[in-house]
Amino acid sequence: MTLMPTFEALKARLEPAGQTHLLGFWPRLNEEQRFALAAQISALDLSSLFEMKQAIEMLHSQKPRELSPAPVVELAERRFPYLLGDDAEKARGAGAEALRLGKVACLLVAGGQGTRLGFPGPKGCYPLLPLSRMTLFEIFARKLKRVGTKHGKTPPLYVMVSRQNEGLTREFFAEHRYFGLDERGVHFFAQGELPSLDADGKLVLESPHALFLGPDGHGGVLQALTQSGGLAQLQRDGISTLSYFQVDNAQVPVADEAFLGLHLTRQADVSLKVVRKLDETERVGVFCLDRGIPQIVEYSEFSEAQSKLRDERGLVYWAGSIAVHAFSVAFLERLAASSTRLPLHAAHKKVPVLDARGELVTPHAPNVYRFERFIFDTLPLARHVVALEVPREEQFLPLKNPDGPFGPEGVRQALDHYWRQALAAGATAVTHDRPPQLEVDPLLAENARELAEVLASRRLSAQDLDRPLRLT
Ligand code: UTP
């Protein structure tokens, strides 16, 4: 049985850091509540308070940047049905070989809170596809099965979850029998959490006996993968490359042989996919160099003049990151061996806090700093980085909001538009309103080229086009 630290011991721990207010409600807590609070206080990494305060300073001061555009393997044909860059096409064989040899694992980060979408459950459980109502988790599982059929080996799937959604996510997979994947090839691991600070640098409570904690960002994956034993497992299984994607991108290829091949043949530590920014105002992190070092620079860090800068080919800073990466496992091992932690980023948020009586009060303005680590901060640590341009409508459809282009209806419309173009290009009599609804099973095809191959041996009849059409 774990002994509970005494009030005095907890106070002595908190005093040097100026955080004794956490014990302010101690006299009125029952034994169980005291135990819970004491456990949280004991687990606190108080040395990270300094890092948090630095992150707040960074938020309020503009870091001087010396930006220049970074090299990208660009698309060879920028119109539908698109062609990848020559180098990526040539590298396809190397990616396929790694998949065939079972050297690739998929890493899906699904620990976010999905606050903007407002769906009551893990985002991966969102029923997205228009006819089958297939969820995001099932979409990825079916894409993965397709990879397995094609290459003879299904990459294992590592899913990062958070304390809040781990139970529901595991249950969802179990309830649906892992969507046909081998249960032994699906590994869940929980990311870490970080506390928050108020304007006076005090740690925030969410109740008289609990700290206000939140998931530590997608960048928390490095630590979580190491601490959960996932990284050691990857080593044991002879996995050399991780295909990283995020739970909200409905169109992401889960193990793209051209991208993986490029990453491998160029011996990159980290690779990333980028799309052309829609215009200078699009709020997306841009892949570029800062003093010659590759990184993703947030839109807010560009001056207006820099964002608008154009040459004869269009925007100079056009390469928007879509948060799709490949990682070399050896690189992640190096980071783990040197206990490297990615930097903290602060965000100023509205968070209900306790008043003197212990009642939650909702603020009218941002009152609390929350902290996260970002996965793209691995870029400056890498020896080689490779960036590949991909077609936006084919590979980037994130579900973020309750409405608008990144809401469920917006994403469904974009999918519908893409697949209608794909079918129309295959000379079927598909039009804007025929069939009335359209869905393509991710197990059948991931993009227009794959769909064309399938339809070469399958004719759609006029009747098919008169009713909702689900191609499976
Ligand atoms: P977002 O930045 O969209 O954050 O995450 P979010 O928490 O999902 O959504 P909002 O901002 O509350 O609306 C991008 C990806 O990173 C994962 C998410 O699950 C998503 O796949 N993520 C984010 C984590 O895995 N952990 C985190 O702590 C944050």
Structural class category: alpha/beta
Please give the order of strands in the largest beta sheet: 4-3-2-10-16-11-21
Basic shape: globular
* Low-pLDDT sequence parts: none
CATH-defined topology of the largest domain: Spore Coat Polysaccharide Biosynthesis Protein SpsA, Chain A
Give the count of structural domains.
3
Bound ligands, named by name, code or SMILES: uridine 5'-triphosphate
Rg, Cα atoms, Å: 24 Å
Per CATH, the superfamily of the largest domain is: Spore Coat Polysaccharide Biosynthesis Protein SpsA, Chain A
Work out the helix count.
14
Explain what you see.
The protein has helices at 7-14, 31-43, 48-60, 86-100, 136-151, 166-175, 221-227, 230-236, 257-265, 304-308, 329-337, 392-395, 408-425, 448-455; strands spanning 67-69, 104-109, 157-161, 186-190, 193-195, 197-198, 205-207, 210-211, 213-215, 241-246, 270-276, 286-290, 293-297, 310-311, 314-315, 319-328, 344-349, 353-354, 360-361, 368-373, 385-389, 438-440, 469-471. Strand 22, helix 14 and strand 23 (469-471) form a beta-alpha-beta unit. The protein has 3 domains: 1-46, no CATH class; 63-398, Alpha-Beta Complex (Spore Coat Polysaccharide Biosynthesis Protein SpsA, Chain A), CATH 3.90.550; 401-472, no CATH class. With 472 residues, it is an alpha/beta fold. Uridine 5'-triphosphate is lined by residues 109-117, 160, 191, 215-218, 220, 246-248, 372, 400.
